[in-house]
Amino acid sequence: GTRLAPKEKLDIPVLFMPDTMKIHEAVVVIHVMRENGENWPYEDSAELTKDLKSVTLGETGGLQEILWIYPVHGITEAVQQKLVSAVICCQARQRVERRVEVPLTGVVPGATSTPARRKSTKVIESSPANIQDKIKDTDGLSTTVEFMYELQYPSNEIKSQLESLVDMRLIEREHDTESGIATLIFKTVFAPTKPMRNEATLIVQCTTGGVWKFPMLFIAMEPEVDDVINIEAVGLNKESLIDFKLTSQT
User: Fold this and answer.
1) Domain with 137 in it
2) Nearest Cα residue to 138 out of 69, 189, 185
């Protein structure tokens, strides 16, 4: 065992080396006993064990040992490769819909960490009529495998700018049985109100374990000109006036 002085701290290294994309669970149990082998005196030790299960009573009374139990959950995260950001581009005050394909390696039980054929997310232009409204199960991917996803932003300022302008929904998923790669297809809507260029990260987590991260870039270009104001001159060195109304869109 390890000898500890009064109020001394104990560091316990935990090594996690997963070989599959799933959740791993373990328990760290720490047993504490007196160095001389004697029990800690405690008058109501019998009453103590009714509510506290982390102590062991000695045969002659008192506390023989104390236990600390810490659950450990290991969540596997995909190796970060140099991915090309999925770019969603649109003019300000316009609205665009895109299909974003995200490849996930090692989702299906038994699949190996075969390198993905695609090294980045893929954006496909599509019209609203071609968008499917529900998740489609293809190529035998188990329907019990579910995914959670969210967009994370570099700062609260960027989050306040993008959160209300971007909508992502999982509409379809596919499975390549040869490579063991699952592909999630998202319907992404971007409706910017002003020019901007902001980054975000799509975080995908499988209920059976595993986390994947994909960079995204949202670009809003300058909007089209609303109108042209023509002012006709009435003559040299004479002032020309024109009246026009401006209406705020917010």
Assistant:
1) 86-221
2) 185
